[in-house]
Amino acid sequence: MACVHDVAAYLVQKAGRISAMKLQKLVYYAQAWSLVWDERPLFEEPIQAWANGPVVPVLFEAHRGQFEVNEWPRGVAANLDTTARETIDAVLEHYGGWTAQQLSDLAHSEDPWREARQGLAPQERGQAEITTAALHAYYSGL
């Protein structure tokens, strides 16, 4: 299985310069739709429900302090198989034109993020995981 850095490398390769926030949201949606369409996760690293939306902490550590990224040397896009690339391409086709804020707002309106944030104030820090089970259950119902 590829890692989240491979997914990020592929996204940046396909999308070009991208905000770090948008990258996080596209990785989130790629994971969600892979679970539904391909019946497997794209990566094993956890996704957490942060105040500004879903975040993969290991990606955050890699882009901390950067508003935009235009390359992702920590990952290897070629590590993704054809099925994974097709899923990510479909996610980019659908969500790629959205702004980072629109993607964040969308995630905030959906059950996986909201349920993981239960009991927290809107801007309160939290590290609750958005599980693959929660992603699969919600997105397979859409």
Topology:
Blueprint: H1 4-15, E1 18-19, H2 20-38, E2 47-50, E3 53-55, H3 57-63, E4 68-69, H4 82-95, H5 100-108, H6 111-116, E5 129-130, H7 132-139
Antiparallel strand pairs: 1-4, 2-3, 2-5
Helix pairs in contact: 1-2, 1-4, 2-4, 2-5, 2-7
Largest sheet geometry: 3 strands, antiparallel
Low-pLDDT segments: none
Find the structural class using helix and strand composition. Answer: mainly alpha
Strand order of the largest sheet: 3-2-5
Overall pLDDT = 97
Radius of gyration: 14 Å
Give a summary of the structure in a few sentences:
This protein is mostly helical.
Please tell me about this protein's structure.
This protein has one domain. Helix content is 53%, strand content 9%. It has helices at 4-15, 20-38, 57-63, 82-95, 100-108, 111-116, 132-139, and strands spanning 18-19, 47-50, 53-55, 68-69, 129-130. α2 (20-38) packs across α5. The radius of gyration is 14 Å and the shape is globular. The protein starts with a helix and ends with a helix. The mean pLDDT is 97.
Which tags fit this structure?
globular; mainly alpha; three-stranded antiparallel beta sheet; 142 residues
